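User: These chains co-purify. Model them together.
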Amino acid sequence: MARRLRLGMVGGGEGAFIGAVHRLAARMDDRWELVAGCFSRDAARGRRSAEALHVPADRAYADWREMARAEAGRPDGVDAVAIVTPNASHHAIARAFLDAGTHVICDKPLTTTLGDARDLVRAVRETSRVFVLTHNYTGYPMVRHARAMVAAGEIGAVRVVQVEYPQDWLATPIEETGQKQAAWRVDPAEAGPAGSLGDLGTHAHNLAEFVTGLRVESVCAELTAFVPGRRLDDHAQAMLRFRGGARGMLWASQISPGNENALRLRVFGEKGGLDWAQEHPNQLRFTPLGEAPRILARGAGALSLAASHATRIPAGHPEGYLEAFAQIYRDAAEQVAAVTEGRAPDPASLLVPTVEDGLRGIAFIASCLESSGRGGAWTALEA
Amino acid sequence: MARRLRLGMVGGGEGAFIGAVHRLAARMDDRWELVAGCFSRDAARGRRSAEALHVPADRAYADWREMARAEAGRPDGVDAVAIVTPNASHHAIARAFLDAGTHVICDKPLTTTLGDARDLVRAVRETSRVFVLTHNYTGYPMVRHARAMVAAGEIGAVRVVQVEYPQDWLATPIEETGQKQAAWRVDPAEAGPAGSLGDLGTHAHNLAEFVTGLRVESVCAELTAFVPGRRLDDHAQAMLRFRGGARGMLWASQISPGNENALRLRVFGEKGGLDWAQEHPNQLRFTPLGEAPRILARGAGALSLAASHATRIPAGHPEGYLEAFAQIYRDAAEQVAAVTEGRAPDPASLLVPTVEDGLRGIAFIASCLESSGRGGAWTALEA
Amino acid sequence: MARRLRLGMVGGGEGAFIGAVHRLAARMDDRWELVAGCFSRDAARGRRSAEALHVPADRAYADWREMARAEAGRPDGVDAVAIVTPNASHHAIARAFLDAGTHVICDKPLTTTLGDARDLVRAVRETSRVFVLTHNYTGYPMVRHARAMVAAGEIGAVRVVQVEYPQDWLATPIEETGQKQAAWRVDPAEAGPAGSLGDLGTHAHNLAEFVTGLRVESVCAELTAFVPGRRLDDHAQAMLRFRGGARGMLWASQISPGNENALRLRVFGEKGGLDWAQEHPNQLRFTPLGEAPRILARGAGALSLAASHATRIPAGHPEGYLEAFAQIYRDAAEQVAAVTEGRAPDPASLLVPTVEDGLRGIAFIASCLESSGRGGAWTALEA
Amino acid sequence: MARRLRLGMVGGGEGAFIGAVHRLAARMDDRWELVAGCFSRDAARGRRSAEALHVPADRAYADWREMARAEAGRPDGVDAVAIVTPNASHHAIARAFLDAGTHVICDKPLTTTLGDARDLVRAVRETSRVFVLTHNYTGYPMVRHARAMVAAGEIGAVRVVQVEYPQDWLATPIEETGQKQAAWRVDPAEAGPAGSLGDLGTHAHNLAEFVTGLRVESVCAELTAFVPGRRLDDHAQAMLRFRGGARGMLWASQISPGNENALRLRVFGEKGGLDWAQEHPNQLRFTPLGEAPRILARGAGALSLAASHATRIPAGHPEGYLEAFAQIYRDAAEQVAAVTEGRAPDPASLLVPTVEDGLRGIAFIASCLESSGRGGAWTALEA
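Assistant: Joint model of the four components:
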């Protein structure tokens, strides 16, 4: 049996949402153990977090630069680091660990500038480290199955892509109440130049490209900040042109009441359609043209290898958000182990988003910002 | 008891879809009887149709001009005419009957040019005739209830409007097979300059305006003809700006497999959201911000007067497309009867779309065509 | 074109629910015109109803015996009579019209005693009149399609039948408030010995037999009256044994909050399953064993002749309760016309429930009452 | 931070389904570490399993009696044992560990005889050990919320309980193909006297009692083995009487095509209803009488403490089967830690099913078997 890999974490201290999700995801398939961390910019808080997480005191770092250096120097140093800080610090932290020779698992969006994103792409190539970006929705088995179906031509050439990701939790200015999750997401200094577009739109963009295998070529976008006083967009709408001629629409919103986390992707080809919704992720609606719609289910029947690779329990026993997130960690473990062991990874583990996907997400943000600023002109992605 | 009103029809002969729907809708609530018609440009076919419809032979006309004249001259002439021909002939026929003093019920879109549309608006004003445009989806009780809720402020000021109307029946070039319904809809000479945009997009546009009470101010659109050889768009996507600041998106498609007649409207305000889908029209999802979503049902509880006015049978006994269409005819009957009897109509009957709504639909088409032609620039509606 | 048939009605005066539904159903497909009626036991009320319904004063009868006699004597007498009175009077009225040579369309349940039911079966045979029982749910296209699929062996031999019909409108003693619909349904003198079992359970029983083609052989039942003071059951549950070995369960309830008219049938065979719910009647879920579930839709693809015979408009344009009810009237018209014209009826029109189906429903009631009274013993149906 | 508790396991070797689920559930919330096991009756297989699970070789036992003894004697012995063997061995194994002073987490059903079940109840009382029965569906937050709502009177006094648990995987005799999961479940020597009733019916019975707080008083049941040659029931239907007067129906099936793991519970009270389905477990439909149905969601709004205690991530991020199962392990950890630390446990942890619940499940099986054998007579539960 392969040993458990050693994981470090930057960010994710007490009260953080996504850090706890990463840890749970890492634990689920028993391929990782959390052994080190720099959990908070506040040292006392960081220590408390480490203790609660069974991380030894001597590996609870107050500074991530120190952590990168120290862990690289230990024989039992971390195999990989999970970066779960606000967007603006991703680049520097990732760069430090890559340079130290540590594999990286990084939350999205990749960076807050195109330049930083390109720098990370270069650094990953130069260091030959594994770099996994947690566009976690690609970990869902039925998302992977949708991708496999498109690739196999089951819906024919793609014509139309409809992707949407509405939420409602920022419909009022809760950032003014001290809500920590909200506060950094609406602050350009932490979140970068995009609000809903960066937080949700990049997931939607990534999901659309992941499933269709197509690339967004240009966008025509409009960003709006509906809540008075908000400095970043809380609502983003865009029309999409894909290379090869497909057309699409993308909608991201943080202010649409009745939507919790309603990511949904619909893809229509010459021969059929696919429809997947994150809140009921175990089903995939497949609509071959001229035939009755079929409800494909995770774990059932003769699904693709890509789907069965990402499933743990039988059909009818719902898996959810955490299992999909865990799949990213399971695949990251396989990739890291393969590098460590000097072998080729299981090809099924290669579906996880990469630093290049991250760069395309940042280019997507940049193009939408430009298009919106120019009054809706079609704007090409530079990536 | 009020007498049944006398209805004439132009178009709708053997094999026509929408003509049969109009007749069924007219019959449902027993306020109309069909007594005259010019059912086909082919005289023999017109006679056969008349006979099958129990229309006397002497009122089965071969020419609609003759019909307008003759019926206006009879003491028992038609109270109103239903125009169910392809779009390009709406204007001339409507004009002829209005000028003869006959009330008009006209299928949508109103005309194929802005000039014709404006002419009809003028003619209606000058003749003081009732003019009802069959944007039939406004006849659904839960659509009217949605409108009443927005008007009553139950979702607060509207911020976001998402409307879509995909179908799939034109995903292949079935017009080449001689399918009559398809043939005229893809032919600019019959359908006008817009394909999916005219057939579906105008319904979507009308529904969005009807429910929100807002007006589309400008559009940023892209029209595509995906099926090789097709001369009119079979796919339309647009971003919308509403007067007052709301934003929205509109999607119409005839080539998206798995969609039969999937008109859906979502409206999000500062305090709540609404979600209605035509294929399950008896429910309306209401999502007050911060509370559990509620499934409102036609016929249930304390719905608005506007909704109960348009419902026939109790909750749980589904009404459908024909009942909604019939509501347009029921309301038209009330308006016509009121004019005839020299009294004010029941206010609840005034919700049916008017010639002005029709003009706005034609302006919407024109602006989308222009925006798409100019590469996605924001284009104001001239209406 | 065939002439419109002449319809008379007994019951269904002002304020009645089901009478209005029958009239609307009769009107929808333009095969009937209402020309006579005995709409109320109250003469003035009956006259007002007749006038409102455009029925001539001389054919507005105060007594149904007089109506049966008088109409039979007119050259333009009614072809058929619709009986829409409370259950207890069905037998006498039906008998009178049959004996006068008039075809009968009768609401369900057929009678309130087994003896009366058997008497009507005999009378129909002796008079050779058409007798149609309005188990209206059999008029839904997807119900007929389900029947056709079972008959064609598409789900293999049937093993399990689950049928339920819950409502909630009698969860409180609204009969004490003077609600007319409730009052007669909970009064043994009007409704007969069964409450929810007669009103809903017979529909459920009929639907199960109609779709599966099987016959209930014996029942094990329990009836309960939950609302204090109520004399008839408002909740019925039963286990079913079908001839040939299938097993099933039936649940009818008038006191289960959140259920409007939630009739649902599920049938499971050796090779597949079917699932149909009345509140979303345009879909039928088909689950071939080992394959992805398929959502069959009214009007779509290659449905059975039985289904397309009962459909008016294309898929995606929902039909509902009234259309299904109208189908019973359309088929009744075909049967009556065939007798009148001395020809064989369209075979597709023969699917409507008969007097024999009605007898089986009464036998089902009797067996459930007996089983419940004997403490749940399995009790055979005598029919 | 509390130390991780030490878990041993009996059963669950290579290829087992439920053992892997237990381990994943134990790992999720980081309160347990697996340190010992007797994973298989086959020693080599047991060793391989242990190695794969990072269990030290000296704690990989070939015999569970030896394991019970040895672990009880170690200072670092297991705090609790998870028993995941076929039903027939639960009693002996549980008894051995209880007698050795080890806490027990046991799969369901508790035993295969009433006598064994009563013996375990006694043993738990005498040893004062924690005994948790993995009726895992009670770990779902919305199930716990439903229970809290009923207890708080939000639906009034319960009148009707409808519970069903159909599957389809045994619709054909797959046990003859060597399918391991199927083989033991249809073998009386391993599974005990009940098939679908024991495997699924006991979950359904437990869920009904858990949510309503009511106790089944007597049953009227019919068990059927539809697949030729099968010795245990693969289909069970029962009517239920609850103490206090509520009525209900229970359906369990392994042969109903189109059902994967379709456990569903509906409860109707005097004032409202609840509807929960395992395959979409994050929602709970609440239908207050006379008001619009509401869709309550895990993680949203002001849910009960019982629900929020069992939730990890926000609304819209679906949790599933594994998270619900993990909740049982999290609560078991709290109970075990409380005993170890000599303190009272968090009251919220006490909702997990107990040995007494297990006894009631066995009594339910016994009564259904007796009722079915006696031809459907109402039979009281002896528990």
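The interface with chain B takes residues 155, 159-160, 162, 164, 166, 168, 171-172, 220, 222, 224, 226, 235, 237-239, 247-249, 251, 253, 255-259, 266, 268-273, 275, 285, 287-289, 293, 375-378 of chain A (CB under 8 Å).
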